[in-house]
Amino acid sequence: MREEFLHYIWQFQKFEKAQLKTVSGELLEIYHPGTLNDQSGPDFFAAKLKIGDQLWAGNVEIHLKSSDWYSHTHQTDTNYDSVILHVVYEHDLDIFRKDESIIPSLVLKEKIQPEVQQNYLQLLEKDHNWINCEKFFPDFNEFDIESWLTRLYIERLEGKTQLIFDLLKQSKNDWESVLFKLLAKNFGLNKNGDAFLNLASTIDFEVIRKLSKSQFQLEAVLLGHAGLLEKDVEDNYFKALKNEYKYLQNKFKIGSPIQLRPVFFRLRPDNFPTIRLVQLAAVFAKSSALFGILAKAQTKADIYKIFKIEVPKFWKTHYNFSSSHHPRQKKLTRSFIDLVIINTVVPMQYAFAKRSLNENEYYLDLIAELSPEKNTVIQHFQQLKPKLFNNAMHSQALLQLKRMYCDENKCLTCALGAKFIKGKY
C-alpha cells in the first residue's frame, strides 16, 4: 500500500461514504474533498466537510498510519495548523493540535472498494519485466489509448515550448532568432545539442541575417565560433575560412569561440559537428526568414523542400580538415529532417499558435504524417499492442508515457492505469 493510492481514493472518492464516522464516532459528510496539492504542505487544500453538527473548511492530510503525522514532524510545521481532517488507512494513535484538541480522523481500510484496491495491488506486483501494466496493456481499449496518447503528446509539447518561451524572452520576441537557436540545438543532436545551442545563443542573430546571402561567410562564423578553426592546417580552404572568420569576428564584434566545444567522439561521420554546422549554414544561406515559412508549412513534403540543401564542394570530399574521401553529396536525409520536424518545427508551430491564440492544430496532422521513431521503448510498446502505433505522434507520446508515468510508477495519474484500477479497461 502506498500513500499515493490513498490520495487517489480520497480525490475521486472511491470508498463507501454511507454513514461515515470519524474515529471518535462523529458523523462525517464530505461536500468537497479539496484540491490535490503537489507542493509542500497538506495533501488537499480547501476541503468542505461537516463533522457532527459543525461545518468545516480547511485542509486534509493523508497518511498510511495516524502515527506518520509525528514521524513526518507535522506537529512542528505551521502549514498543518489548518488541517480539519486526518485521513488514514489505519488508525494507531490520536493526533493533537497545538491547543491539545484532537484532529478528527477517518479510517479508510474497511471503506475502500475491494475491486479497486485489488486492481491497484495487481499493478504493483513484482512479476513484470518492464512496466507495471504490461500483462494488461494488450487488453486496453484502443480508443482509450489513442485519446490518452493525444493528451500525452500535448503534454510533451508543453514541456518543449518552455525552452522556446525562455528563448523568446531573451531575444525580445524574435521568432526567427529563436528558430535559429532551436535548429542549431537539434542539428547538434544528443551529443552536441548543448554546445550548438550555446554557439547559436552567443551570436547575435542580426549577424546571421546580414550574412545570409553568403554560405561561405555563415560557414566561417559557425565553424570559427565553435572553435573548429583554431588549429593550423595546411589546407587552402581551411585557411580561407579561418581568415574570413577573423575578419567577421572583428567586423561584427563577435566574442571569443565558445568554451563548450562540440565533440567528434563516438559519432558517425555524417553527424560530425563540422558537417552539421556546414549544413546549418546552408539552410540559413537559403533563407534567413525561415520561421515565416515553417510556421505555415502543413505537410512534410513542404518541409523537405525547405531543407533541400547542398554543401560546398570541399565538404563533399571531407568530414574534417585532415583527410579526404571519395565524393558524397551529404544532403540532409529525410530521417534527419523528420527529427527536425519533431523537435523543432512542430514545437515552434505549437508555441506560435499558443502565443497568438490561433486555434489551428495542423501541427497534429504534420506530426501524424511522420513514421514512428525507432528505439527500444517504442519497440516494447509495439510488441504489447502490435500495429497500433504507426506515426511520430504516437512514438513521442509513448516516450512521454514511459518516462513521466511508467518509470515513476504514476499509474494513478495515467488514464490507462486509472481505468484499469476502476475495472473499466
Describe the structure.
The structure is a single chain. This protein has 425 residues and is an alpha/beta fold. The chain folds into 2 domains: 3-112, no CATH class; 171-369, no CATH class. 47% of the residues lie in helices and 9% in strands. Strand 4, helix 2 (68-71) and strand 5 form a beta-alpha-beta unit. The mean pLDDT is 94. Pfam families: DUF2851. It comes from Zunongwangia pacifica. InterPro entries: DUF2851.
Q: How many discrete structural domains?
A: 2
State the shape: elongated
Report the end-to-end length measured between terminal Cα atoms. Answer: 22 Å
Tell me the fraction of residues in β-strands, as a range: 5-15%
Fraction of residues in helix: 40-55%
Assembly type of the chains comes to: single chain
Give the low-pLDDT segments: none
Instruction: Round the mean pLDDT to the nearest integer and report it.
Output: 94
What is the makeup of the main sheet? 6 strands, mixed
Number of helices: 17
Topology as H/E string? HEEEEHEEHHHHHHHHHHHHHHH
How many beta-strand elements? 6
User: Structural class per helix/strand content?
Assistant: alpha/beta
Radius of gyration, CA atoms, in whole angstroms: 29 Å
